[in-house]
Design goal:
This protein has 270 residues and is an alpha+beta fold. Among the domains are: 2-54, 2-Layer Sandwich (Herpes Virus-1), CATH 3.30.40; 63-138, no CATH class; 233-261. Helix content is 42%, strand content 13%. It is built from 8 helices and 9 strands. It has helices at residues 47-54, 63-72, 83-90, 97-100, 112-119, 173-192, 205-210, 220-269; strands at 2-4, 11-13, 17-19, 26-28, 32-34, 44-46, 78-82, 122-128, 133-138. It is elongated and about 175 Å long. It starts with a strand and ends with a helix.
Length: 270
């Protein structure tokens, strides 16, 4: 797809052209400059927009009135405008002399406001300061300036502008080593995520059987020594009860033997 540059008129592919950040039109790279207001090299402006920023045109205060009269000259010969309407066309307020002095509207003055309607081919026919309006009359036709640019015929064959394509930059060894180290660190973090956190021991199989899943041992004593202590205590209780039983049975049998012996001696003495 091809397009024509708006400044130099060369026809080239759109891939070789760039868009102006201000007017949004396509131009060749030879007709583009960086933004002169900000100095940003990425924001490119065409030569027309750059000239308007560097040296803007001085527009007359009454240029709006002149352009309006030129537009009305195409289909009418008399135009009646109120003072409020003129204020809207020029984008400002008329001076106080325009409301008080009728000479301000004279056609013989060489002031800036008089040149506005005289250059457009109009003259003031009537002024009414009381009601606040003015009547203009067309005295001659003024050729309007055409803004269209004439197209130049292309006689030469298309020759693309040599453009240096940007080369792919090879990353430096330092950046490559940093990236490789970062990847390795991420891999280590993923593999170490399954290992226990430092300071927290995983539960053994004995602890998992001894305690509930939602219960946690309070200290090492309760974890390791409490079960052994309970076992020894239970053994002591069993031995104590066995000793008491043996002692009670022995004493009972001994007492029965003593009573039997005493009975025998008493019977023999009688």
């Amino acid at each position: 797809m091809k397009d024509e540059c708006g400044i130099c008129g060369r026809v080239m592919r759109t891939t070789y052209m760039r868009q102006c950040q201000r007017c949004k039109k396509l131009f060749c790279r030879d007709c583009m400059v960086p933004d002169v207001s900000t100095g940003d090299p990425t924001a490119m402006l065409c030569l027309h927009c750059a000239r308007r920023i560097v040296a803007p045109r001085t527009v007359s205060k009454y240029s709006g009135l002149e352009s309006h009269l030129k537009f009305r000259a195409a289909f009418t010969g008399i135009v009646k405008l109120s003072f409020a309407r003129i204020d809207g066309l020029i984008g400002s307020n008329l001076p106080m002399n325009a409301y008080r002095d009728p000479l301000w509207w004279s056609n013989t003055s060489t002031s800036e406001h008089t040149k506005a309607w005289l250059d457009a081919g109009w003259e003031v026919q009537e002024v009414n300061l009381k009601e606040g309006y003015v009547v203009f009359k067309k005295v001659r036709n003024v050729a309007a300036k055409s803004k269209r640019r004439r197209k130049t015929e292309i006689t030469q064959p298309f020759t693309p502008v040599p453009v240096h394509m940007p080369r792919s930059k090879v990353p430096s060894k330092t950046k490559a080593s940093k990236l490789y180290a970062r990847i390795k660190n991420l891999e280590r973090q993923r593999t170490m995520a399954r290992q226990p956190i430092r300071g927290f021991k995983p539960k053994s199989q004995y602890q998992k059987k001894l305690f509930r899943p939602d219960q946690k041992p309070s200290s090492r004593f309760s974890t390791y020594f409490l079960p052994a202590f309970l076992t020894v205590n239970s053994i002591c209780l069993v031995l104590k009860s066995a000793v008491h039983t043996v002692f009670y049975v022995g004493m009972r049998s001994l007492l029965q033997q003593n009573l039997l012996v005493a009975g025998l001696f008493g019977w023999a003495s009688n």
